[in-house]
Design brief:
about 325 residues; 4-stranded mixed sheet; 10 helices; globular; binds oxa(dethia)-CoA
């Protein structure tokens, strides 16, 4: 059977590190509050003028190098981001140019923090249908470009970064075993960036009104997240016929350690199987899962044959899961 198999991973983080102690000097918060409530100790912050493709391009290049392929073999680049360089052209096109994937189609996907799981699901469908053979999926974000550093309820949570994977059509047992996506558009107000789109265009008058800041109903989102994570995992188990004990590594979207552990408890997954890097990179939205995959590979947590479960949730609200055999 043909499966989409991840054959290379990569990441790229900005140079600048902002610790919780740095944030203490910028707003009314404490290192203790941030660590206890979220698990975050630091985050990376892009330089002024650095766009999503400036992080996503190098991450993709590393994944391509790790896969050992020629960029001209790539059929498609999917860039998952909520903070593209421009409203158009798509950041995927900028990345295509940077990595020299001259034969690849390229487009962006915006499903907020679930973006990478949506992108990988789409890639899997193309491969299953026999349309494409080699696809690069990039998750890249410069979320700090959209933060108001005076708003402690959101400013402490996010960080910038990019991760990427190369998937290729292969015959055999290794690769993606199941995919599942969900959405509840009625809960869109739980996490929203109201300004800058077609509804609330940027005007001189509205720049200072807060309409261009991320707005989040944290505690409500927290409760929803635990429930939809559970559903996403259950869907993956049902689709594959695997049991919770078969999972070797659970790589969740890194939004909050407490959400992740509450979801793991709910599904009966021991904490030692959960992969976390939120302490180092914070919540990098669509980049969170591919950065974590790359970290898990580098640290030897994922090996050939490992059963890996990815699960995400985010604004929309959206959620999803992917089970794969590495
Ligand atoms: O990527 C997907 C999207 N994001 C999420 O899924 C995030 C989901 N939500 C969360 O992770 C949590 O709700 C937060 C981390 C955002 C907040 O944690 P919480 O335990 O739900 O805290 P809270 O919002 O109920 O606030 C508790 C207190 C409040 O003070 P009072 O009213 O109890 O006096 C807040 O004003 O903590 C205060 N607070 C802060 N204190 C210090 C809120 N933000 C901060 C802060 N530093 N940065």
């Amino acid at each position: 059977m043909v499966r989409a198999r991840i054959i290379g991973t990569g990441q790229h983080l900005p140079e600048k590190v902002l610790t919780n102690l740095d944030l203490e000097k910028m707003m009314d918060t404490t290192d203790e509050w941030i660590r206890q409530r979220t698990g975050i100790k630091q985050r990376y912050v892009a330089a002024n003028g650095q766009g999503a493709s400036d992080l996503g391009g190098p991450a993709a290049a590393r994944a391509i190098e790790a896969a050992g392929i020629d960029p001209k073999e790539i059929d498609l680049i999917i860039c998952c981001t909520t903070t593209p360089d421009y409203l158009f052209p798509a950041s995927a096109c900028l990345i295509q140019h940077q990595v020299g994937a001259t034969k690849a189609a390229a487009y962006d996907v915006n499903a907020a923090c679930s973006g990478f799981v949506c992108g990988l699901t789409t890639a899997n469908a193309y491969i299953q249908a026999g349309i494409y053979k080699t696809i690069v999926i990039v998750g890249t974000e410069v979320v700090t470009s959209r933060l108001n550093w005076k708003k402690r309820d959101t400013a402490v949570l996010f960080g910038d970064g990019a991760g990427a994977v190369v998937v290729r059509a292969e015959n055999g047992d290794h690769g993606i075993l199941s995919t599942f996506l969900g959405a509840d558009g009625g809960s869109g107000d739980l996490l929203i960036l109201p300004g800058g789109g077609s509804r609330n265009v940027v005007t001189k008058e509205n720049v200072d009104t807060g309409v261009h800041d991320i707005s989040m109903k944290g505690p409500e989102l927290f409760k929803k997240a635990v429930v939809v994570f559970g559903e996403a995992v259950q869907q993956a188990l049902t689709a594959t016929g695997l049991a919770i004990n078969d999972i070797d590594v659970f790589i969740p979207h890194q939004a909050n350690t407490r959400i992740i552990y509450a979801a793991a408890d709910r599904i009966g997954l021991p904490q030692e199987k959960v992969f976390l890097n939120i302490d180092r990179v914070a919540n990098t939205t669509a980049a969170s899962i591919p950065i974590a995959i790359d970290d898990a590979v580098t640290q030897g947590r994922i090996r050939s044959g490992s059963i890996v479960l990815l699960a995400a949730f985010g604004a929309g609200i959206t959620w999803g899961s992917i089970m794969l055999r590495w």
